């Protein structure tokens, strides 16, 4: 298969946030190392001993980042990873990359009022996986909101997991350190938004009580979440 056709653009989701966006699909079976060169993406040394799945998803994410940056007139930039594995974006740019089985997405912006941006895509968890992970994902005090969400939304735990991943990505540059899922809790929701409140002091700008909104979409067996921090 033509390596340039192995990562076709995907139109499953239309972002709710007004930022540059690109998504593609991919398969591990069609991956070859030569695709990095074909797409003009540098092959990082840290992937030398990586399994095919890791290489394919890394490349897919960087292809999406490359196209998203081009949509705000930034070309020829390589998005490397820091020691914390977070992507390092060009000066003045906030961005986020996400991938799951067979789909990758990137979003970025040069908006000077934007402090952080986080996106996440997930495939719905199976029942057994949900039962195993529920206590790790939910804050003890958000069970009531979770029950309400489960009455209106399929796979609510996957949705909350994805939302908290997006929150983490959006806030991490400002916090500068790891924080867990129990740092925020769901308080209410609408058909396309989840509203969380910070319950653990993350920084002087992110105190207990500050609310964070996450936008979400569901499509077939996928959930996509977006979070901006201004």
TrEMBL record:
Sorted UniProt keywords: Enterobactin biosynthesis, Magnesium, Metal-binding, Transferase
GO biological process: enterobactin biosynthetic process
Domain named 4'-phosphopantetheinyl transferase N-terminal: residues: 45-108
4'-phosphopantetheinyl transferase domain sequence ranges: 116-196
Residues reported in the UniProt entry to bind Mg(2+): 120, 122
Metabolic or biological pathway: Siderophore biosynthesis; enterobactin biosynthesis
Binding-site residues for CoA, renumbered to this chain: 54, 62, 98-99, 120, 165, 169
Reactions catalysed according to its record: apo-[aryl-carrier protein] + CoA = holo-[aryl-carrier protein] + adenosine 3',5'-bisphosphate + H(+); apo-[peptidyl-carrier protein] + CoA = holo-[peptidyl-carrier protein] + adenosine 3',5'-bisphosphate + H(+)
InterPro entries xref list: 4-PPantetheinyl_Trfase_dom (IPR008278), 4-PPantetheinyl_Trfase_dom_sf (IPR037143), 4PPT_N (IPR041354), Enbac_synth_compD-like (IPR003542)
GO cellular component: enterobactin synthetase complex; plasma membrane
GO molecular function (one): holo-[acyl-carrier-protein] synthase activity
UniProt KW Magnesium keyword: yes
Known cofactor(s): Mg(2+)
UniProt-listed PANTHER family: ENTEROBACTIN SYNTHASE COMPONENT D
Oligomeric form and interacting partners: EntB, EntD, EntE, and EntF form a multienzyme complex called enterobactin synthase.
Family that this chain belongs to: Belongs to the P-Pant transferase superfamily. EntD family.
Function, in words: Involved in the biosynthesis of the siderophore enterobactin (enterochelin), which is a macrocyclic trimeric lactone of N-(2,3-dihydroxybenzoyl)-serine. The serine trilactone serves as a scaffolding for the three catechol functionalities that provide hexadentate coordination for the tightly ligated iron(2+) atoms.
Name of the molecule in the record: Enterobactin synthase component D
Organism: Pseudoalteromonas citrea
Gene this chain is encoded by: entD
């Amino acid at each position: 298969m033509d390596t340039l056709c192995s990562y076709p653009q995907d139109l499953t989701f239309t972002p709710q946030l007004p930022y540059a966006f690109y998504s593609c699909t991919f398969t591990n079976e069609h991956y070859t190392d030569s695709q990095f060169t074909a797409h003009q993406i540098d092959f990082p040394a840290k992937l030398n001993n990586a399994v095919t799945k890791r290489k394919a998803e890394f490349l897919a994410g960087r292809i999406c980042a490359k196209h998203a940056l081009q949509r705000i007139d930034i070309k020829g930039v390589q998005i490397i990873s820091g020691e914390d594995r977070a992507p390092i974006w060009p000066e003045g740019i906030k961005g986020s990359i996400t991938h799951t089985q067979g789909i990758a997405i990137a979003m970025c912006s040069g908006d000077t009022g934007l402090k952080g941006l986080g996106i996440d895509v997930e495939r719905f968890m199976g029942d057994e996986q949900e039962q195993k992970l529920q206590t790790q994902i939910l804050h003890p005090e958000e069970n009531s909101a979770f029950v309400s969400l489960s009455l209106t939304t399929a796979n609510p735990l996957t949705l909350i997991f994805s939302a908290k991943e997006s929150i983490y990505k959006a806030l991490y540059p400002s916090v500068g350190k790891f924080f867990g899922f129990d740092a925020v809790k769901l308080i209410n929701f609408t058909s396309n938004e989840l509203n969380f409140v910070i319950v653990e002091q993350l920084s002087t700008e992110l105190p207990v009580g500050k609310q964070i909104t996450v936008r979400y979409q569901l499509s077939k067996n996928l959930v996509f979440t977006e979070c901006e921090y201004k």
